[in-house]
Specification:
binds (2S,3S,4S,5R)-3,4,5-trihydroxy-6-oxo-oxane-2-carboxylic acid, 54 strands, binds calcium ion, eight-stranded parallel β-barrel, globular, glycosidase, DUF4982, Immunoglobulin-like, Ig-like_GH2, seven-stranded mixed sheet, Glycoside hydrolase family 2 TIM barrel-domain containing protein
Length: 895
Amino acid sequence: MTKKLYLLLFALTAVFSLYAQSRQTFTINNNWKFYKGDLEISKSYALSKQNNTDWDIIDIPHTWNNIDTTDDTPGYYRGVGWYEKSIFITEEENTKTLIYFEGANQVTDVYVNGSWVGQHKGGYTRFHFDITSFLKYGQDNILAVKVDNSHNIEIPPLSADFTFFGGIYRDVFLVKLSDVHFSMDDYSSSGIYITTPEVSKAKAKVEIKSLIKNESNQSKTVHVVNRIINKDGQTISKTTKKVKFSKSEENKTVLEEITIESPELWSPDRPYLYQIITQIKDGKTGQLLDESIAPLGLRWFKFDAEKGFFLNGEYLKLIGTNRHQDYLKKGNALSDEMHMRDIRLLKEMGGNFLRIAHYPQDPTVLEMCDRLGILTSVEIPIVNAITESEAFTENCLFMAEEMVKQNYNHPSLIIWAYMNEVLLRLPFNQKTEKDRYEIYAKNVTKLGAQIDKHIRKLDPSRYTMIPNHGAISRYKDAGLTSVPMILGWNLYQGWYGGVFDGFDKSLDKLHKLFPNQPLIVTEYGADVHPRLHSFDSKRFDYTVEYGNKYHEHYLKAIVERPFIVGANIWNLNDFYSESRGYALPRANLKGITTLDREKKDTWWLYKTFLSNEPVVKFGQNQWKIRGGVAEAGKDYCTQPVTVYSNGDAVELYHNNIKYTAQVHDNIARFSVPFVNGENRLEAKSTINSKEYIDILDVDFRLTPNLFSEFKDEFYQLNALLGSKRMYEDKMQSIIWIPEKEYQSGSWGYVGGESYRPKTKYGGLPSSELDIIDSEDDPVYQTQRVGIEQFKLDVPDGKYAVTLHWAELESDKEHEKLVYNLGDDKVSERITDREFNILVNGDYIERGFNLRARYGSEKAVQLKYQIFVSDGKGINIDFEKVKGQPVLNAIQVRRL
Ligand code: GCB
Ligand code: CA
């Protein structure tokens, strides 16, 4: 809409509001009182007066879990929180007042002046209450809202790999309506439903159905005006319908059909949006009574199980991400702009597909997808399991209807989904409780079928989908795979278990098993901590390099197969998940951006492949402090460097030397001899006969191999024991490098082996452990067990040696790898250990017992100052008393 039109509308509304109101919608987000805990509500006075301590003043969006889910203590508050706000209501005639929530997690009760107005169940859909009859006019009114995010077996999700932040975490509005208005009673929808039963290049048929409510108790004649305006704000069609309400008649459905000749089509490349303005006007006075604006995107689409997806008759591979709605330290309480930013991030990457998982999100998400041209699916949060009860079923169906009706008018939306990996968390053992399991599986399928049928009836114009996990036969045997139109698969071969090739094999197997259903890879991903690196990366080490390998393989496999109609990376962003320990505690790190939306390498990998824009970008471009050991007889250390490019070749300049590499699958790979200190890398690539450049400055900390041949003065060594990882600590500006074995004249460990948790497949990696009292968990997550010595043949001088430990043998009951989609078996092993520590022959600790002194998984540091003389170097001995001595990391600094 143009500015002029806005002004005009605004002026009109202002004029009419002199004698009556059309719709007014405004937030009441600011200055609520908030109390964490439950209270008894009373009619006579405000809750906050009755209990006037412990109330905070907060603004909405708000959650009470943004901090307690990020700390070292497991668990987060799940219970009741009370919100209270006083609002002044002026004397107004014929005005309906609604309170409208975009979302609150998860059960919400609304009270006005101490009286209960209503309750809403479910944390991710919108809802409203008509509070007109509860209000006192010309007075202050007390709004009180009780929100409860306790575990509730009747409301999905029962469990899931994300934090269930409690609170009123999306905008809350007051809506003022005249007594004839579009009805929001239909599951808090807008009351307007737009369909396009026929679209082609030649013409488009548009159907506009509006639900109108007359609350005046009088007969009424109104005019319903529908206008379609194009992108430039010009009206291309206008229709008016006269509608009569008899005295007792409350609701009417008004249907309008409009044909647009030679329509502009909507697509990711050109997301052309019309708008439909629907107005209700008084039949006598012409006064505007209500008004609604909806986007109109004209497109048609089809999924083909063999050939893929077609939009407006043209083939389109759908590639994009999933998205969770949280952000660093904010939990799920985000501003509209923060939601919008994420969708831009996806578009900027070249993505054309978004799975809004695992729940409906803020309205701005779909608005942005309409505007930017991103096709979407939305789903209700039935995750992992169901409850076999009528109440649960009812809530699922209710949520499904809310989802469909509230999001009905978005052209970007093409798929309704429900039930994510619903046979992952089985309440009954498939073997030992076979009979009971089979009943459960039947109930799951029955529920799925009910939801599917319900959705198809509500909206026959879109597809339905169920995303399953990799245990294919479970879903097939239960009959669940024949329920939805599209099958989604969440596949993690090479992460939770198996190897990358297992992914390719699964895809081909799925196509054979389900030749008539379109297949989407609804999830795939690997956890990446952007500060962890390894040139010998392994699954579950959380390194950038492993994540890169994973996505390079998966992307290729997806692109090669037309029958894979689409794929969604898990996930656009890292997100909070309380049950996870990991490299960065309490978060799932499979995002291609971080919790604060720093772009990981994988984001660039996809951008280079998907985007039409020229890309030349260093991989590992956030890795500014590198480190490594000088090669024998040399004063440099050679390390791989990658450049993403959609050109044919890349030239790389380093220290006045030029290297050239061909681009394969969007990557040029180099080996660069890094010298101590500043290293400027410059990459050049010619794309469409223009040259593009990227520059990366690396601060390389060269560590001596033989101290005697090291040119620069030895300053510092930071080594991780039992590890092949490197960890960049930006805050302290240091790089941790992997251990190495001691050799004469050099440094390293003597004896011992890398810590391996005793599990079936090497199982629960220690990189899963949440280390207490450290922000640098990776420093402590690995260790050398049975270490005898750590030696450095440093020159004479004064040194500070810091030894770092954490006992990795847990003494706690952990719920480990909750989202283990492989089948690693976890077993606990508890050993006790005691050892003596000697530095250059002097006992500095005797009977050192980590667990006894500090407990397990707690970061411990001991710093010693040492004078080295007579060329003796530094010798740290570990003498075993009981069990095996360990060391997690060591720092040696010259003073
Ligand atoms: C899944 C789940 C998702 C998890 C993801 C993971 O399959 O659908 O909720 O977060 O795997 O990272 O394990
Ligand atoms: Ca919002």
